[in-house]
Amino acid sequence: MALLKIKNLKIKKASEIFKAFSDESRIRILHLIYKNDEMCISDLELILDFTQTKTSRHLIYLKNSEILDYRKNDQWVYYYINTAYYDIVAQMFSFLENDTTLINDLEEYMTLYSNNELAIRKLHNKLNKYKLPELDKYKL
Fold first, then answer.
1. 51-99 pLDDT, tens per residue?
2. Which of 9, 29, 37, 57 has its CA at 20 to 30 Å from residue 78's CA atom?
3. What is the CATH number of the domain that holds 19?
4. Of 128, 139, 140, 138, which is closest to residue 35 (Cα–Cα)?
5. What does the pLDDT look like over 4-39, one tens digit per residue?
6. How close are the terminal C-alpha atoms of the chain, in Å?
7. 18 — phi, psi (to 5°)?
8. Which alpha helices (DSSP H) does the chain contain, by range?
9. Does some domain include residue 4?
10. Residue 59: C-alpha distances to residues 2, 14, 67, 125 (Å)
């Protein structure tokens, strides 16, 4: 299966992407997913201290705009960046790499992951894989 990559955007799609990045909560959700390859709603709620309703609303928006895609694994739904828009998302986050809120979110992820409190950690344990984002490249 060939991976679709967007080389040119139409103004409607560009507007949807910019709208997705116009909300701080969606930026934080996207950043965690971007940095960790995939995330489930319960982990995002725990890390960001968002309600289930707030998190779901933002995930639905991101999924409807096609920035996020998802896969099911047992009872969990894992969201990941749609490969077609991955380069655009990566470029947007290159401008935010030193943002303290996003760095704090990653630190919270690392703490909860290390304490085996996240669903993604349970999946990684099952798959014999351990993944933590690198924070040493950030200027704290």
1. 999 999 999 999 999 999 999 988 889 999 999 999 999 999 999 999 9
2. 9
3. 1.10.10.10
4. 138
5. 566 667 888 888 889 999 999 999 999 999 999 999
6. 40
7. -65, -35
8. 11-20, 24-36, 41-48, 52-64, 86-94, 100-114, 119-126
9. no
10. 25, 18, 10, 25
CA 116 to CA 108: how far, in whole Å? 12
Q: Quick one: pLDDT at residue 58?
A: 97
Burial of 65 (0-12, 13-18, 19+ CB in 10 A): middle
Burial 110-131 (b: 16+ CB within 10 A, else e): eebbeeeebbbbebbeeeeeee
Residue 118 lies in a domain: yes
Phi, psi for 48 (deg, rounded to 5): -90, -10
